[in-house]
Structure formats: C-alpha cells, structure tokens
Specification:
- It is a single chain.
- By secondary structure, the chain is α/β, with parallel strands linked by helices.
- Strands 4, 5, 6, 7, 8, 9, 10, 11, 12 and 13 form a 10-stranded mixed sheet that branches. It has a 3-stranded antiparallel sheet with strand order 1-2-3.
- Strand 12 and strand 13 form a beta hairpin.
- It starts with a strand and ends in a 13-residue tail after the last strand.
- It binds magnesium ion.
- Magnesium ion binds next to loops.
- The site of magnesium ion has 5 residues, from loops.
C-alpha cells in the first residue's frame, strides 16, 4: 500500500524576468510545494502563478489542501478527485486547480523518487527530445525588436514561431504579421496569439485580414469562457483556432470539443490541476481527433509531451525557463538546445528549487 502523507509545506518564490511579459509587473511568481510521506520520503512540485494569485494559491495550499491531504494516500491518481471535490466549493477551476497542481506535482515527484524513475519514464515516454517552437510575449516590442527576436529563432534553426497580435489598430497587426512572414519565408510555420483580446466582430475582421499570411493557428482570439463565440467564429474563418491555456477542467475541454470550438487544444499542466488531470485531458483531446499542444512551462511540459503520441512541439519563450530565471538550485532536466528540447533522465520531476 502506498505510504500516507505526513505533511505538505509551501513557500512562494519570485524571479525578475529579463524580458517582462507585462512591463508593469516584471516578476514571475511560483509557489513551491513539498510533500513528505510517513516514511520520510519527500517530493517537490510547484504552482505557477505568473502575475496573478500567488498569495491566494499559497493560502489555499496551506489552509485547505495541506489539512485535507495529511493522513491520506500519497498516490496522486488516488488523491486527485477527492481533493478536487473537497475544494470545489471555492470553484471548479482557477485558484483551486492551480493550487492543487502544487500537491499533484509533488506527489508525482515523490512517486518518481521512490522508484528512481523520471516523470517521463513513469508516463511511458518513448523518446527523449522534441522540437521547440519560438514563442514571443512581444506585443509591446517595437517592430524592429520583434523582427530581431524572429531572426534569433531563425538563427537557432527553429522552424515554427508564434507572435502576439491584438494592437488597438488592426492595421498595425497586419504590418507586423506581414513583416514577420516575409522574414520567415514561406516554409516556416507562423502562429499568432491574441490572448483573448477580441470580441467576435474584431476576431472575424482580424482573421480575414491576416489569413493571407498562411497562419498555422490563431490562438485565443476570444475570452476562453465564450464557448458559443468560439463555435461561431470557427465556422466563419479559415484559420485554425487554438485555445485552452485558460481552461481549467476536463469537463470544460469536453464541452469545447463537443462544440467544435477549436482545432488545437492547449492545456496548461498547472492550471488544470497537475499531471493527473492533464493526462485525462490529453487522452480526451486525442481520442476525439483534435490536436494537442501543451501550454508553456517547458521544464515540465517537455517531460509530459515526450510521452504523448504523435507530433508535439514544446513552447519555448526566450529567457523564461526556470533555470534561466534563477529559480533552480540544480540544472533543469529539460535542456533547450537550439531548436530541440532534450529531456534528461532524473528521478521524479527533476526540479530542485532554490529557497526564497
Ligand atoms: Mg497563449
């Protein structure tokens, strides 16, 4: 029988980003969670709260999740549903699932340490590397800065890139996407990401104006809550739609798939509540014939994605890996080498965080 949980401890950790995603909020925040079982074995996970919610997530872990988890099974797949049910009064997804991810990831780490196996190995990985795509949080960059970033990706041999759109004036988006497409040439893939900035008429107009640049996908044109809006938009435009980084439960992914809301689904492993629900969501998306593209967190997502079937690209944002941000006390198990993410064999998640 799996050992029971003796304690759950958490602390906040922040890093100043060399390339802030939100210029007014240059720090990225995580909450590190350590679980100890009754044998004294430990596992470490984290909740990711880049700009919003770190203190709330920390409080939920300390006040609600730790109290619930102590004395219960340390098998993450046994614990997850009961813990989610326990937290549900505070919301089916959002702060609850982000907080729960910290515990779930710590339990997967603990399971890996017990068996001296990596997360990728526990998940049945069949490979140790995947291609990356260059992803820029660059809406606030000048056109020159944007093109310089795209040139750095080209120089690394990267063949797919994603840029932000959603300028107040659509003509400016058109100019930027046109310039990036010209620099990329016809053979590299270009994705664009609106980060939920538009309503349906704006999204339709943007898709019409930008479709001629041969876009691999348009990401989050609308608020992620607007399932009917996505369904209507997808029927109207020729560009494939990607979304899912702000969708928190398997139920919501199922409803979106039923509504034919998107072509590509992008769960964020932390926002959905950890590895345990992310596995279910991945199965659901792939079973239903949609494409899966895990969102961000290459230090974690690459370890998850090497166990997925088919072609998956790892999203790589410049200077935003945990090691580059100074959040780790030991090298990350995931090394980005030019256009490839290589997953090194380490027990568990292989992420050792610095103390705050
Ligand atoms: Mg996005």
């Amino acid at each position: 029988m799996t050992a029971r949980i003796r304690s759950v401890e958490a602390y906040p950790l922040s890093a100043r980003m060399p390339r802030p995603w939100v210029p007014s909020a240059p720090h990225l925040h995580i909450v590190v969670v350590t679980v100890t079982d009754e044998n004294g074995d430990t596992g470490t996970g984290f909740s990711w709260t880049p700009t919003i919610g770190a203190a709330s997530v920390l409080a939920m872990i300390q006040n609600d999740i730790a109290v619930f988890a102590v004395g219960r099974s340390s098998d993450p797949t046994e614990l997850w549903d009961a813990a989610w049910t326990h937290l549900h009064e505070a919301g089916g997804g959002g702060v609850t699932t982000i907080a729960l991810a910290g515990l779930d990831l710590a339990l997967w780490d603990l399971a890996g340490h017990r068996e001296a196996r990596s997360l990728a190995s526990l998940l049945g990985a069949t490979r140790d590397r995947l291609p990356v795509y260059g992803s820029g949080v660059n809406l606030h960059y000048s056109l020159d800065e944007l093109l310089a970033q795209v040139q750095r990706w080209i120089d690394r041999g990267i063949s797919s890139v994603k840029i932000k759109v959603g300028k107040p004036d659509l003509a400016e988006d058109v100019d930027r996407v046109a310039a990036v497409r010209e620099l990329l040439g016809p053979d590299r893939a270009l994705m664009i990401d609106a980060n939920q900035r538009w309503d349906i008429p704006q999204a339709r107009a943007a898709a019409e104006a930008l479709a001629r640049f041969d876009l691999a996908w348009l990401e989050e044109p609308l608020r992620s809550d607007d399932t009917a809006g996505y369904r209507a938009l997808r029927r109207d435009i020729d560009v494939p739609i990607a979304m899912g980084e702000n969708v928190h439960t398997a139920y919501r992914f199922r409803d979106l798939i039923d509504a034919e809301a998107a072509d590509i689904y992008q769960p964020n492993i932390v926002r959905v509540g950890g590895i345990t629900p992310a596995l279910r969501i991945a199965d659901l998306v792939l079973e239903r014939g949609a494409r899966l593209a895990p969102h961000l967190l290459p230090d974690l997502s690459a370890q998850f994605a090497v166990a997925l079937p088919g072609e998956v690209e790892v999203e790589d944002v410049e200077e935003a890996g945990f090691e580059e941000l100074g959040l780790l006390a030991a090298p990350s198990p995931v090394k980005i080498d030019r256009a490839v993410a290589v997953v090194h064999e380490r027990p568990g998640l292989g992420l050792e965080f610095v103390r705050s």
